[in-house]
Amino acid sequence: MSDARLEQWLELTEATLQAPAERRLEALEKLAESRAELQRSLETDPPVAEPSLDLAQRLARSEQALQSMLEQMRVELSARVAAVRGVRRGASGYRPTVGNRPAFLSRSA
């Protein structure tokens, strides 16, 4: 017999892994909040019996998949931050001309 809280933990993790890319951050926030509640519950009232072997294996696989997804997100975020920093560095020396000064003077003027 498995604890329903562990099954809920697994369901939340799997739902986060299956979330579309544009909703992933929202899913991760929801996962973090729900996991905090479940962790408090498990710490105050530990499960009476060990989880089933199948549940333990599924939990381990889903946690590994979540870890690799988070690592991939970190790599993507680092690349995006580096690109933004490069653009900012490239634009740091740029000074636009003042609007009230003409860009060139004509000889006829």
Quick gist of this model?
Helices cover 68% and strands 0% of the residues.
Q: Could you characterize what this model shows?
A:
By secondary structure, the chain is mainly alpha-helical. The protein has one domain. It is built from three helices and no strands. The longest helix is centred in the middle third of the chain and has 39 residues. The mean pLDDT is 86.
What's the total helix number? 3
Order of helices and strands: HHH
Q: Which descriptor suits the 3D outline?
A: rod-shaped
Question: Which segments are poorly predicted (pLDDT under 50) over 5 or more consecutive residues?
Answer: none
pLDDT averaged over residues: 86
Beta strands, count: 0
Class by helix and strand content?
A: mainly alpha
The tally of structural domains comes to: 1
Distance between the termini: 93 Å
- Amount of beta strand: under 5%
Assembly state here?
single chain
Largest β-sheet summary:
none
In percent, how helical is the residue content? 55-70%
Radius of gyration: 26 Å
